[in-house]
Amino acid sequence: MVNRIVTASVLALCALVPAVPAQADGPGRMPQVAGRRLVSAYAALHYDTSVQLRDGRGAGRHVLWPAGWKVCAQQPAAGTPLQGRRVTLTVVKRKESCP
Fold it and tell me: What is the tens place of the pLDDT at every residue in 29-85?
């Protein structure tokens, strides 16, 4: 009984600790996300980064389920300062090849 309470408490505390985004090139810089799944790319970007998605097939498709997509290209390039910049990710469905 005590072990269950301790385990539940530890899990609750872990949920409260904010996740630190993976910043490949230091804080405030664009990480390398091309080649990653879209969910992983989102996780690598800071929460307040403005992200625009572009269909890599040119069909104007909308991403409704990010887990089913991957990033083919990114703008700006990795290492570029992000402060106030919009990020554009060119994406295709995971089973498709990048253009």
Answer: 999 999 999 999 999 998 889 999 999 999 999 999 999 999 999 999 999 999 888
Residue 47 contacts residue 71 (beta carbons within 8 Å): no
- Containing H/E element for 56? none
Q: Is residue 23 a contact partner of residue 29, using CB atoms and an 8 Å limit?
A: yes
Tell me which residue has tokens 């790319």.
Answer: 41
The β-bridge relationship of strands 69-75 and 86-93 is antiparallel
Model confidence, pTM:
0.72
**DSSP helix/strand/coil, 76:** coil
31, 45 contact by CB (below 8 A): yes
What kind and span of H or E run contains 69?
A: strand 69-75
Are 92 and 55 a contacting pair, CB within 8 Å?
A: yes
Q: How far is CA 3 from the centre of its chain?
A: 35
